[in-house]
Amino acid sequence: MASDTSVIGSSVVPFRLVFLMWAAFYVEVMFGVPLRQFGIVPRTFQGLLGIFLGPLLHGSILHLISNTIPLLFLGAVLFFFYNRIGAQVFFRGYFWTNILVWLFARPANHIGASGLVYALAFFLIFFGMFRRDFLSLFISIVVLILYGSVFYGVLPTDPEISWESHFAGALVGIGSAITFSKKKNVS
C-alpha cells in the first residue's frame, strides 16, 4: 500500500502532463499558433517530433477534456497503487505508443493523448489478470467497469480518430502488464 506522501505524489506526473496539454491548447487558441502541425506524421522526419509533442496537442476542447479526465484518473490509480513501476509504465505508454504510431500508422497527423490513456487502461485491466492478487484484480475490475469501452476504440470506426494510437496503446499496456506482473514488489 502507498504511504501518505505518495497520495499527493500519485497524481503529480499525470497532472503535469495535463497542465502541458491545456497550456498547448491555450497557446493555440489564444495566440493562433498552429501547434497541431507537430503531431505524429508516420514515417516522416517532421513526424518524429510528434513522438514527443503529439500527446500534448488536441483538435478541440472536447478532445482535450475526453483525454484529461481518464488520464488523471488512470494515472493517479497507476502511481498510487503501483508507485514503484508507475513511472516506467507511464513512460512506456507515452513513448512506445507514439513510436509504434510513427512506424505503423496510416499517413495522417495523429494528435492527442488517447494512446497513453489506452496504454494505462489496458495495463491496469490486464495487470490484475496476470498478477492475480486481490488488489490488482479489484483494480482491474473497477477499470474494466469504468473504461471497458476501450476495447471498441481499437477498431477503425471513424477516419478522424487515430484508432492506431488506441491500438498501439493497448499493445503497450498489455506488454507492460505482462512484463511487470512478474515483479515482486510493485507498490
Which features does this protein show?
globular, about 190 residues, about 70% helix, mainly alpha, Rhomboid-like fold, 9 helices
Structural class: mainly alpha
Q: Which descriptor suits the 3D outline?
A: globular
Instruction: Count up the helices.
Output: 9
Secondary-structure element string: HHHHHHHHH
Average pLDDT confidence is: 93
- The total of beta strands comes to 0
Q: What's the end-to-end separation, in Å?
A: 6 Å
CATH level-3 fold name: Rhomboid-like fold
Fraction of helical residues: 55-70%
- Beta-strand content: under 5%
Q: Could you name the CATH class?
A: Mainly Alpha
* CATH homologous superfamily caption: Rhomboid-like
**Number of structural domains:** 1
Major sheet: none
Low-confidence stretches: 1-6
Q: Please give the CATH architecture.
A: Up-down Bundle
- Global Rg: 16 Å
GO molecular function: serine-type endopeptidase activity
Membrane topology: Multi-pass membrane protein
Keywords: Membrane, Transmembrane, Transmembrane helix
Organism: Chryseolinea serpens
